[in-house]
Write a structure and sequence with these properties.
By secondary structure, the protein is of the alpha/beta class. It has 2 domains: 84 residues, no CATH class; 194 residues, Vaccinia Virus protein VP39 (Rossmann fold, 3-Layer(aba) Sandwich), CATH 3.40.50.150. 34% of the residues lie in helices and 20% in strands. It contains 11 helices and 13 strands. A 7-stranded mixed sheet has the order 8-7-6-9-10-13-12, sandwiched between helices. It has a 4-stranded antiparallel sheet with strand order 2-3-4-11. It has a two-stranded antiparallel ribbon with strand order 1-5. Helix 7 links the parallel strand 7 and strand 8. It is globular.
């Protein structure tokens, strides 16, 4: 893509949650401040029409409190972010894709990390695993929205789940296809495809059009299906500002920061409500080990003071 013209790369929007247009500035940052040393090595800001001193604003809605980047890059530029501006990260971090000791260790860790959101969703479908595959077995279908390198889809194979992934990053889609995973662009998956589970791990903070995101999920999820998602809360801004090191507060990519209240308000427009949690799929003799994750979720209701959230929604 030709270098974007600086004067028209940004677009101001109303609050995605309540449609208000009155905001206060939470923080103002430039790429020189929020790009760490590694990112500066591979980020090509020129193709986006910005430079190290371009100002980005994270604002808070004065009506509902939603925190988001505004003005933000034009909608058409987000594909450029992932497929042109940061594509060189695949060279800087090429060890992630190699079948050597470091690459295998990284992928093993990544699969282990994805076990927790994966099992958090599966716990609502335990009846599907009560029978053997040759005894009236009914296969679950799972959509991984933002499938990245396919770690959740790898787990689907282990559990006999029909897994499909969508992503806008063409490099990662090609990598998944080399692993014989069923992946595609979001636009290539018809709404007639229905799933029992959608997992969207660390994706919603990247989403430019939140209404389209929830509509997409709602159209493809069966009734009483589970939508498990994780993301960032406004607390991460305070934490990283205090520490003087920005990693998650990255206005080129991370543009939405949710509280529980405004996420449920937005999701509710698309037939989602919060699912009642079961106690989980693990058992242990150590009562403290068993109780801690449940107690943590009970106290914070999935929105943790560390700047991260997890929530399980159910399609009405």
């Amino acid at each position: 893509m030709e270098d974007a013209k600086k004067e028209n790369i940004f677009s101001s929007i109303n609050c995605p949650v309540c449609k208000n247009n009155k905001f206060k500035i939470v923080i103002e940052l430039t790429p020189d401040q929020f790009l760490n040393k590694e990112r500066k090595e591979y980020y090509n800001l020129k193709v986006l029409g910005v430079d190290d001193n371009t100002k980005f604003f994270i604002k808070k809605c004065k009506k509902c409190g939603f925190v988001f980047v505004n003005p933000r890059l034009r909608s058409d530029l987000y594909s450029v972010v992932y497929n042109e501006a940061k594509v060189s990260q695949n060279e800087v971090k090429n060890w992630e894709f190699k079948e050597d000791d470091l690459g295998n260790l990284y992928n093993l860790y990544s699969k282990y990390r994805e076990i927790f959101p994966f099992l958090s969703a599966l716990q609502f479908f335990r009846e599907y695993f009560k029978k053997a595959k040759n005894d009236g077995y009914k296969q679950l279908r799972l959509l991984d929205y933002g499938c990245g390198q396919g770690h959740i889809l790898d787990l689907c194979k282990v559990f006999g789940i029909d897994g499909i992934g969508v992503d806008i990053d063409s490099f990662r889609l090609n990598y998944c296809k080399q692993k014989d995973l069923n992946v595609m662009l979001p636009s290539e998956l018809p709404s007639s495809e229905k799933f029992h589970i959608i997992i969207s791990d660390a994706v919603i903070e990247h989403i430019d059009d939140l209404d389209a995101y929830f509509k997409y999920a709602s159209e493809r999820l069966s009734k009483n299906g589970i939508f498990y998602l994780t993301g960032l809360t406004p607390s991460i801004i305070r934490i990283e500002k205090r520490d003087g090191c920005y990693k998650r507060v990255m206005p080129l990519e991370h543009i939405n920061y949710f509280t529980r209240k405004n996420l449920l308000r937005l999701a509710g427009r698309y037939e989602f409500k919060e699912a009642k949690r079961s106690i989980g799929v693990f058992a242990t003799k150590n009562i403290m080990q068993y109780s801690y994750p449940i107690l943590k979720k009970f106290i914070f209701r999935g929105f943790y003071p560390t700047g991260y959230f997890e929530i399980t929604l159910i399609k009405k």
